[in-house]
Amino acid sequence: MESFSLILAIVVVTALAFDFTNGFHDTANAMATTISTGALRPKVAVAMSAVLNLVGAFLSVEVANTISKGLVDEAGIRPEVIFAALVGAILWNLLTWLVGLPSSSSHALMGGLIGATVASAGFGAVHGDVLVTKVLIPAIAAPLVAGLAAMFATRLTYRLGKKADGKASEKGYRAGQIASAGLVSLAHGTNDAQKTMGIITLALVAGGVLAPDSDPPLWVIVSAGVAIALGTYLGGWRIIRTMGKGLTDLQPQQGFAAQTSAATVILASSHLGFSLSTTHSVSGAVMGAGLGRKGGVVRWSTATRMFVAWGLTLPAAAFVAAVAEWICGFGSWGTAVVAVFLVASSFAIWKISRREIVDHTNVNDHEVPGEEPAGVVTQAMAAVTPPPAGTVHEELAATIPAPNDPATPAKTTV
Fold first, then answer.
1. 365 domain-assigned
2. Are 310 and 58 spatial neighbours (Cβ–Cβ below 8 Å)?
3. Torsional class of 273: left (φ above 0), alpha (ψ -120 to 50), beta (otherwise)
């Protein structure tokens, strides 16, 4: 019983560590556009997001119940399985944070839980219908719905504000963007903080501390909310830069449309108990807002790398978790080996990240790593564009001699 209590404590601490990584990994979802447009200063933005994440954690437990009761069979779960699932999710979060890709912490957790459960109890312990209806379908639908909503909202916003005073309109949209960013932070707390609540509750049920089908205890809700708020306050500056500058260049009108659309999708999914990826929703909304403005562009090279990361999240986290569960199956020493590997890998990733520091002082730099150059078509169009009326191109002036002035005699060469 003593060793069991130790492993359960390790699982709870590891779950809160995942919640912490979820916070700084997903800060960009709420505040990237607000920071990139200058509506809020970086430190103020992440502090505001942290507080609202904490508040949102207390608003609902529907998503937590989806994870703790619906995704896998509680009877076939041991605390070591939960630990292995968290190892896979944390390592994927840290790797994608290192390269600045806004992947889904939610799907990393789901993939880790599925991989560890399959390794421990077989495929029959995973509820396929819940996986499809409440995880996979929302993963595809969320960015599409949020993207379309943001695109049409952006077009409507520009059309309605066409005759408005430019400075007054921009100031109003900045205020609206701050409000919508707060709504996204609140929505993030109602969705993502609950995933850790669900994991801890599942571990407590597996360890016999709680009865099956129990709701998360109050101390679980508080600890999960505090952990994700602390992670949010630190700010995942690398991902904020990618989301705010790497996908597209946003104006306040676009930022307002993107965040409002994403918040609406996230809150609706939380109410329905869908374990939605806030990253997918916000990323789709940012791209939709980029396409909604006339002349706006989406950097598809960055978007493509992001899509690849999305597709790899579930299987990659599942594979790492399955290997971790296999090693944990050898007993206490196996669990110790996995724990040491997790700590060492996390420290190594952090050390690598210090080679190029991204923080609140340079998060809005325009030179975004991986930014694609102008395409062939764009360069060709620029090359054939005529100069403005009344100007003479420098190269033409250098190569074509001016006609002689009739008032001056022409020079003759002997």
1. no
2. no
3. left
Whole-angstrom distance, CA of residue 13 vs CA of residue 8: 9
CA 111 to chain centre: 16
Cα 8 to its chain centre, rounded Å, is 29
Closest to 37 (Cα-Cα) out of 186, 180, 170: 170
Q: Does residue 81 lie in a domain region?
A: yes
User: Which residues does residue 126 pair with via DSSP β-bridges, in sequence order?
Assistant: 72
Separation between Cα atoms, residue 281 and residue 264, nearest integer Å: 10
Residues 6+ apart with CB under 8 A from 108: 88, 89, 92, 93, 313, 314, 317
Residue 401, in any domain of the structure: no
CA dihedral (249, 235, 232, 276) positive or negative: positive
Range of the domain at 165: 2-353
Tell me which of 48-62, 95-109, 232-246, 343-357 is least confident: 232-246
Residues in the chain: 414
- Encoded tokens for 217: 């205890």
Q: Is residue 19 part of a domain?
A: yes
Torsion sign, CA atoms 358, 359, 363, 365: negative
Token look-up 């952990």 returns 227
The answer to whether 296 and 155 are in contact (CB under 8 A) is no
Cβ proximity of 111 and 316 under 8 Å:
yes
Tell me the pTM. 0.75
Residue 370: band (very low, low, confident or very high) from pLDDT cuts 50, 70, 90: very low
**Total of domains in the chain:** 1
Following DSSP, what letter does each residue of 96-140 receive, concatenated? HHHTT----HHHHHHHHHHHHHHHHH-GGGB-HHHHIIIIIHHHH
CB distance 58 to 219 below 8 Å: no
Cα–Cα distance list, 389 to 86, 379, 383, 400 (Å):
64, 21, 16, 18
Whole-angstrom distance, CA of residue 43 vs CA of residue 31: 10
What is the DSSP secondary structure assignment for residue 389, as one 8-state letter? T
> Which two three-digit tokens encode residue 159?
């059309």
